[in-house]
Structure formats: structure tokens, C-alpha cells
Amino acid sequence: MPERNVVSWTTMIAAFTNVKNYEEAIGFLILMLRDGVRPNSYTFSSVLRACCKLSELRQIHCGIVKYGLESDVFVRSALVDIYSKWGDLVNAERVFCEMPTGDLVVWNSIIGAFAQNNEGDEALNLFKKMKRCGFAADQATLTSTLRACTGLALLELGQQIHVHVLKFNQDLTLNNALMDMYCKCGSLEDAHRAFNWILNKDVISWSTMIMGLAQNGFSQKALEMFETMKKSGIRPNYVTILGVLFACSHAGLVDKGLYYFHSMQKLFGIEPGREHYGCVIDLLGRAGKLDEAVKMIHDMKSEPDAVTWRALLGSCRVHQNIDHAVYAAKQILALDPDDAGTYILLSNLYAKSQMWEDVAKVRRIMRDKGIKKEPGCSWIEVNKKIHAFILGDNSNPQLDDVIRELNQLIHRLKQVGYVPDTNYVLHDLEGEQMEDSLLYHSEKLAIVFGMMYSIKGKTIRIRKNLRICGDCHVFAKLLTKIEDRDIVIRDPIRYHHFRDGVCSCEDYW
Fold first, then answer.
1. 118, 304, 317, 336: which has the fewest Cβ within 10 Å?
2. CA 195 to CA 187: how far, in whole Å?
3. Which residues of the chain register pLDDT less than 50?
4. The dihedral of CA 330, 332, 338, 344: what is its sign?
5. From the CB of residue 359, how many other CB atoms can be counted at a distance below 10 Å?
6. Which pLDDT belongs to residue 68?
7. Would you give the DSSP letter of residue 490?
């Protein structure tokens, strides 16, 4: 072309960005500027998506200000999106707050930025501000807001968002997000209703439901749904098979899990990824096949990460296998030297095997490195408010009443056979101290708070930051039997649905 204008250059920059040739896109911007052509808002909206590091993003941001385009709706939205992609929420919010926002596109970008970076509280606050400013939520707004509710496991608030979703009827993306929210909040009945509401289900709809059932402990139903999905003609994807393997792992279905893993490429054309390997390693480990689990790790095509080794270490704890536990722990600490959970689990395994010198060595390393156990924290939503309980934190104004009620419940539970299991306490306490430490675990406090202050008969839903311990698991089971109250506890790994003295995991976790 003898002459190139802004449209010519922008078309090329957008084309390179669309095919992920980001270096060429940035290079063409530089050539464009050298050619004396002034970029417009479309140029910057395109090239922002090609930024591969924060330093590039900041330079382009300076160019946007230089050319006076920082107030353009699409440029501001792209800036917020790309800053959030790189985890720089401070600058994303700064761009948003620099001038009054009169466009829904920019509101959606900032709400999505916080929701995608696990800052659900702020995403929900921004959603409320947006509504107060007179903006009507669209599909993009509601998808991000549902994601925020999902991350925080806020069922009641998610149900309020559901009302807005109904206005958009058969929007597939929104309905899939709604179903995921209900699954992640442990409300499978609502998730099923949302699933059945979708007329034209896609692979995401089916995969979300299969994974949701598996995570909530309903492995057999997850596998039945997988068979129904195949009969409907929908081809499984990467996540679908992950849900199937997760279901097999948490139900002890070793042969079935290995069959799906070894045949997933042949049957569905899906190459096993690190997550699939992790599920199979967990499957073998839970079943006590620790040697096979170690072999599977060494056979992985990609380098195993700390999550993979933690799956093996967790199985070693269940089966009290010191040798494999030490091996797995060393691999974890090589990748994550300050992982407190690994040190504590190893210390307790040594203590249970009466290897006191090794216990002292692990505790000395922790002391020298300044590593401390992350305190257990549990959250419960009661009357549209979030209440947090942290072991050792006495700031909750109702704590004394909760502890008094908990003591009475413990006394009643002991009469029906409850015995505190001190295997789940760090072994530097003795006798009654160990029992006291168990007594005030955060999930016990949250459960009792829910029983005291929520509507009678309503399911108690708890979210916690650490894996539920065996003692609290027994406590919750017995409590549902004597109180006739359902309890759902979501920990970082899975969900436990307690009803009438039984847990959905069937004690296989």
C-alpha cells in the first residue's frame, strides 16, 4: 500500500492480536507511531490485549494518556480488563475511579476484574454501587456477580441474583453460571432445577453438573449423568473427564477410574493433563495403592507440582505410611519451602509412630523458618450477614453464648458415643488440652452459631479454609442425628452433606 492510514494499521494490529501473535502486534504499533500515524481508541483497545507483561501495559497506558484517549469507554474497559488479568487490581480500580463512569461496559469490566481475582466482597460492593447509580444489570454483570457469590459460597445472595437472571430467560452462559453457583454453594436441589431449566444444554452445562455432583459427594449420580450426557450426543471435554475421575476417586472406584483415564484419549480425543493425573494419583492413594500412585507421578508427561505431591501425602496420612509421606513431603517442600500444612502433617505422622527425634527436628525447622500453622477459619451466612469464626479469636460478641451452647451439645453427644479424636491436634499438647483444642475448632463454633441464630430447620451451610478434620466430621454426623438438622460443610477440597447421622462422602475422604 503506498499510503496507510489508522484503519490499515489498526486492522493489522487487531489481526495479529486475534491470532495471539502478540509480539508482531506490539511491533506494528511501534512502526505505526514511527510512520507518524496517530492511533485511535480501536488501535489501543486491540493492542492492549497483546500486552504480555506489566511493563508493556504501563508504556501503552502512558501512550493512551498522551493521545487523550483515557476517557474512551472501550479503552477504559480494556485497561481495566488487562490490569486485572495481570492481577494488578490497584491500577484497575484507579483507571475506573479516575472519572465518573457513565457506561455499563466499564462497570462490567471492574466488577469482572474483582470477581475473577477472588475478591468477591469488593465485586459485590461494586455491583451494589452500580445499581445505586441507576444502571440495569446485563448478562455480563450478572455472570460476574454470580462468580463472586460462587467464590464466597453466598447462597442467599446468589438466590437474589437468580431473580435478575430470570429476566434473560434462556441465556446459556448465565444459566451455566447460575448452576455452578448452586453447586459450589452445596445446594444440589437448586442446581438440578437450574440444569433442567436449560432447554439446549451444551458441554459446559453437563460438565458443571457432573463436577458439582462429584464434589458434593454424589459420585454415583455424577457417573450416571455422564452416561446420560453421552447418550444425548454431547461430546465430553477436558473438564467433563476431570469430573468423572474426581467422582471415581471419592467413591473408591479404582477400576472404573483407571479405565476412563487410560481410554480418554482413544474414546474422546482428550490428552490427559496434570489435573487428570492428580485425580488418578488421589484415586490410587485413597485405595492404599501408594506404590502405584508414586509410579503414576513418575510417569506423568508434565512435571508434577506441589498439588500433585500433596494428593500423595494426604493418602499417606490416611494409611500411616511414613516412608512415602517423607518422600512426598520432601518434594512438596522443594517446590514450596514454607508450606506449613506439610510440616504439621509430617510432625503428626512422626508423633503417631513415636518417632520423637524426627518430631523435634520438624518443629525446630518450623521455628527457625518462622512457619506457623494457618488458623482454621469458618464462615456462615445468617440473615444476609457473614459471620467468621477463627480458632483463638475472641472478637465475636456472641462467642461466649456459642461456647456455652457447644459445651452442652458436647455433653449430650458424649452420652450417645462421641469421643474426641485427638489424632487431629498438633502433637505438642497433652490430655485435656488436646480435647479443648478440638472443642473450639472453627467449624464447630460456626455450626453451633447457625443452630442458635438461623431459622429452625434451615440447612446450616459452612465454608472453611482448611480441610475438615476427622473429629469435626464425626461431631457433625452425630449432631445431625440428635438435632434433626442438615449441615453442609465446604472445605478447599470437597463438600460434606450431613443428614441423619450420615455424610454424603460415606466416610471415604
1. 118
2. 12
3. 426-435
4. negative
5. 20
6. 92
7. E
